[in-house]
Amino acid sequence: MSIEYLGLSEIRGPLIVLEGVRDASYEEIVEFTVEGTEKKMGRIVEVYEDKAVIQVFGSTDEMSLKNTHTKLTGHPMEIGLSEEILGRTFNGLGQPIDGLGPIVPEMRVNVNGQPLNPVSREYPRNYIKTGISAIDGLTTLIRGQKLPIFSGNGLPHDELAAQIVRQASLGENSDEEFAIVFAAMGVKHDVAEFFRRTFEESGASSHVTMFLNLANDPVVERLITPKVALTAAEYLAYEKGMHILVILTDMTSFAEAMREVSSSKGEIPSRKGYPGYLYSELAALYERAGIVKGRKGSVTQIPILTMPNDDITHPIPDLTGYITEGQIVLDRPLHQKAVYPPINVLPSLSRLMKDGIGAGYTREDHQDLANQLFSSYAHVGEARALASVIGEDELSAIDKKYLKFGTAFEEAFVAQGHNEDRSITETLDLGWKLLSILPREELDRVNTKLLDKYYKPSEE
């Protein structure tokens, strides 16, 4: 039996305090009726004796201490799910906004999810192809992995996210079902429209489920959006046996919404004003990626975050790096050179890459080639630093070759068109073509048999 309460005790921004509450529980959904007609929703974020603090999904401007009726529903936030969600667009709370009517649910699921027992996890294997050489070749995305993209304001992470959605697949020879769950938090209308139009024009929208929380939507809704998206992904993966790639953008908006709500609650701030539980909140989202033993599907995550002032030591990228298995770093100097995507390969890494590439997965030369490209490009940085001091003309012949390799690597391997979808074979062959600029004796990270098979020195 649900109890209805008349009036409120306190209104503080998006938070409402209700006194005299019985049997309230954390994360419970609350329904408000304002002036007898307008309906609103909220969730309980704190319970103390007979007091409940409730976050309202929306504005509290029309609410007063006397004109509001409150009803506790007795259950946490749930969304109705079925396979119909593929190809549909929802708001941050999981309500359809594409004009195609409501979903007929097969089941209703708690959006807060359940932590995966580590024992029930299966070790991630098999790569996911993105068609982007800098990712597929050097920071390969593995099924069940969480691999964030660290970006900055003004860098083309939105374009990169859209390209990954358009091109991502399980590889050329896979016949398994693959779909994408895309969640945007705090994005402007033009950015949301860019994603929607891009997916429709490319034909990708049929296997994409979109959750959009716009910049003018309630801040509190931003905290729910990634949970709703991951719940949909888990349903498609573990109930329907599909391999799901989840793209979450922008996790910085999520963290800032958390900071704003935490401040409203009067909590003591931690680093840079963020609440002390930022780490556990991020972990609760990121750890919902993985493969479960005995289940056919998988959930893979690419969270995207913009680093304030391009500072990789900022709490959001710093804590994200602790939880996830690597990172892809976008670089402003490369962007200023008109390189797209401006992926700086040296600070980028994929910790699970070694277990999903090589013979039987991509090609037997993949790991050695990636090691050599990393090593050679690191040498390019040394040669450029030296050239800036003594001048390029004074460099040794081998350093000049490294400079040539570095320019070619950025312009041909890292850079590619917004609609260019490279196969893994094309990426690896391109890597060997670039290494041919360097003499064979410089390639000390590659097995001799692989050098004999793939290395063809340039004509110069």
From TrEMBL:
* Record key words, sorted: ATP synthesis, Hydrogen ion transport, Hydrolase, Ion transport, Transport
Ranges of residues in domain ATPase F1/V1/A1 complex alpha/beta subunit nucleotide-binding: 131-350
CDD domains, alphabetically?
ATP-synt_V_A-type_beta_C (cd18112), ATP-synt_V_A-type_beta_N (cd18118), V_A-ATPase_B (cd01135)
Keyword Ion transport part of the UniProt annotation: yes
Family matches, as InterPro entries:
ATP-synt_VA_C, ATPase_a/bsu_AS, ATPase_F1/V1/A1_a/bsu_N, ATPase_F1/V1/A1_a/bsu_nucl-bd, P-loop_NTPase, V-ATPase_su_B/beta
Which molecular-function annotations from GO does this UniProt entry contain?
A: ATP binding; hydrolase activity; proton-transporting ATP synthase activity, rotational mechanism; proton-transporting ATPase activity, rotational mechanism
Limits of the ATPase F1/V1/A1 complex alpha/beta subunit N-terminal domain = 9-63
**One Gene Ontology term from the biological process aspect of the record:** proton motive force-driven plasma membrane ATP synthesis
ATP synthase A/B type C-terminal domain location is 355-455
**One Pfam family from the UniProt entry?**
ATP-synt_ab
> What does this protein's UniProt record list under function?
Produces ATP from ADP in the presence of a proton gradient across the membrane. The V-type beta chain is a regulatory subunit.
Describe the family membership recorded for this protein in Swiss-Prot or TrEMBL.
Answer: Belongs to the ATPase alpha/beta chains family.
State the protein's name: V-type ATP synthase beta chain
Specify the species: Acetivibrio ethanolgignens
Gene symbol here is atpB
